[in-house]
Amino acid sequence: MGAKRAIWAAVAVASLALAACGGPKPVDAARIAAADSNPGEWITHGRTYSEQRFSPLEKINASNIGELGLAWSFDLPETRGIEATPLVADGVMYTTSSWSIVRAFDAKTGKLLWEHDPAVPKSTGVKACCDSVNRGVALWGGKVFYGTLDGRLEALDAKTGKLVWSKVTVDQSKPYTITGAPRVVKGKVLIGNGGAELGVRGYLSAYDAETGDMAWRFYTVPGEKETDGAASDKAMKDVARKTWNGEWWKVGGGGTVWDSMAYDPELDLLYIGVGNGSPWNRDIRSPGGGDNLFLSSIVALKPETGEYVWHYQTTPGESWDYTATQHIVLADLTIDGKPRKVLMQAPKNGFFYVLDRTNGKFISAEKYVSAVNWATGIDKATGRPIEAPGARYEKTIHLSNPGPLGAHNWHPMAFSPKTGLVYIPAQEIPFPYMQPGGDKANFKYRPQGWNVGIDFLVAGLPDDEAQLKAIRASLKGKLVAWDPVTQSAKWTVNYDGPWNGGVLATAGNLVFQGSATGEFAAYDAGSGKKLWGFDTQTGVVAPSMTYEIDGEQYVALMAGYGGGFAVSAGAGVDPRSEGPRRLLVFKLGAKGKLPARPASTKTPLTLPATPGTPQQIATGTAVFAANCGVCHGASGVSNFSIPDLRYSPAITDAAIFKSIVIDGDRKEQGMVSFASLLTADEAESVRQYLLNLARRQQEMQKAVAAK
Predict the structure, then answer these.
(1) Count of structural domains within the chain
(2) CATH number of the domain enclosing 572
């Protein structure tokens, strides 16, 4: 045992001894380090700093999983996507829902103890690329920390939910958001942000847990000059700047740190995942090429100072929204007969990476979904991808798999030390990339608009039902049990479609995952055999967690469909998105039941007799694709929380539609004015396009009914 590891072990034992003598102690470094000695709790996002999402609890296991039933539930009033991992400490559960609302429950009975609503302005929703979601809280020193969608980091009193301090972490005049869960390392609360699709510069900030004072900030891409006075200044000057060209700072640069982090106490290294470029298209962002560090990279930092230590870039010169913000897992593996301290990630680009976490050196990488076609493999000598011809869509469309939603998105994977397998919520969602209007010269930066540097019009969905069915068939979801040593799949469970929930693995030889179609299931960790299922009545994207109170093991899940695919995919999918948003908690022998699932509220419209002109509809199609589809779906169809526009009465009245889109009459509901981006005539063309979609929808329904 190394000296540092011995020190941490001693600290953990001492902490547990103090807790036994004096009752529960506030969450701190020693308590998190001792997580495996107190497996009944789940006190940090991935249960441990290693983010393995593996629980040693085994009272619920493969032999008795059939007895698992609903212990208690709580229906949420919010209607947007639900992505949080609940935390449990000292018998209290802390979790978040959409619009950054925080709640605390008695983890045994489900009694609501307190609720804190940060009153995020609903107009902030237009800045969120991927729904008004929140992935959870952090605990430390008697406080609950969380980020708000509009860019605040807040500390609440863990007992009362009262606000202790609040810090604005972003320039709120710019399209920044926070959706990720903070982490606390060595008394510093770590938080990143999102917004690269709209044009921002990414960074990670560290705040003192007691005072809220900022300790350091690490920018992930260079600015105009190295004058930030930030922890990243030297790394920007010595490492990153030389990999960029042009004046990228005028369009943001990107590199937001919007989700994954992990920490190794022995090495004292913090690992962060860095996001996509802004714009996505490198031809526009960095004319002349370049790797564009630290986009799509894993970066190791010193947590006390933010000092740069090393990086590994998964997608050099990223041009597809291939983020490396996906879940990072730390583990000790035996590879080629030698023990290795590794870092593992399955980023969007479709390759599963195993790195040496002491120095960032490449060990191995292979495709974890077979459909990957933008690169043929990873060069073992350099660790760089071997790109396929035409993948960068310089002159023609490239139908790439994966697309911008990735072969794996934010949904956490899990690693079981018992089986040695990583369980990945994988998917196949192809996407056609093309230069804007066929030529990068057509790109125009819009300060308040979507700035990705590709042509979304080519990704629009057809009206023909047969073609829609073919598209649905091409969208695949799967749970992949991956051996990181052999870089191969041990088993796979196939789902009806993509965008399924995060994963939990337990010592009870179980793997838990919810699906977009509303089933929460348990699988045999060794074989993938389905052992148990529960109808949640709503699509699931969040991961589950588990805890123990008074000798009983519980499994908890936040359910409610949402996120990037849900809001943008449109009529090409049919997820179970119209169900309620709720917290579900299970235990052995429980007999709880849910109320009946609500019926659909969609009512066909009475449409105007005269359709719009072909020119209006064509213009509306292009305007909608460029401005509206990312929230309202590729054919005006988003998830339950954002209405299906084919059924919206507003499209039947020109004056009402203009008041919403141009005048901003529904700003307080999240629909801000688009007057800075659209003319009144363009807004009317969008209305005619939506009326045409509604008309086509009704015609298809009549045709189906007549058969």
Answers:
(1) 3
(2) 2.140.10.10
Q: What burial class does residue 492 get, using C-beta atoms within 10 Å of its C-beta: 0-12 exposed, 13-18 middle, 19+ buried?
A: middle
Containing domain of residue 30, as a range?
3-37
Q: Give how far the C-alpha of residue 515 lies from the chain's centroid of Cα atoms, to the nearest Å.
A: 15
Q: Is residue 223 part of a domain?
A: yes
Q: Are residues 279 and 151 in the same domain?
A: yes
CATH assignment at residue 682: 1.10.760.10
Q: What is the DSSP string of 252-317?
A: -EE----S-EEEETTTTEEEEE---EESS-HHHHSTT----TTTTEEEEE-TTT--EEEEEESSTT
In a domain, 600, yes or no: no
Structure tokens at 107: 């983890």
Q: Are 154 and 163 in contact (CB under 8 A)?
A: yes
Contact 132, 569 (CB under 8 A): no
Is 45 part of a structural domain of the chain? no
Instruction: List, in order, residues 6 or more apart from 653 with CB less than 8 Å away.
Output: none
Q: Among positive and negative, which fits the CA dihedral 47, 51, 56, 60? A: positive
Same-domain check for residues 21 and 125:
no
Alpha-carbon span 608 to 408, nearest angstrom: 43
Per-residue tokens: 552: 């009983």
Q: How many CB atoms lie within 10 A of CB 614?
A: 10
pLDDT confidence bin for 264, thresholds 50/70/90: very high
Q: Is the pLDDT of residue 295 over 60?
A: yes
569 shares its domain with 636:
no
Of 657 and 334, the structure prediction assigns the larger pLDDT to 334
Same domain? For 226 and 271 the reply is yes
Cα 35 to chain centroid, rounded: 25
For residue 351, the cross-strand partners are: 367
Digit-coded pLDDT (tens) for 309-362? 999 999 999 999 999 999 999 999 999 999 999 999 999 999 999 999 999 999
CA distance 531 to 477: 19
| Contacts of 360-366 spanning 24+ positions with Cβ under 8 A | 360/298, 360/300, 360/309, 360/310, 360/311, 360/312, 361/312, 362/312, 363/335, 364/335, 364/487, 365/487, 366/487, 366/488
Give the angle subtended at the CA of 276 by the CAs of 270 and 281, to the nearest 5°.
Answer: 155
For residue 363, the number of C-alpha atoms closer than 13 Å in the C-beta half-sphere is 25
Tell me: the pLDDT tens digits for 108-149?
A: 999 999 999 999 999 898 899 999 999 999 999 999 999 999
Around Cβ 370, how many Cβ atoms within 10 Å?
10
Beta bridge partners of 297: 313
What residues are labeled active site?
321
Q: What is the separation of C-alpha 630 from the centre of its chain, rounded to a whole number of angstroms?
A: 15
- Alpha carbons 453 and 440: distance in angstroms, whole number: 7
Domain assignment present for residue 210? The answer is yes
Mean pLDDT value of segment 490-514: 97
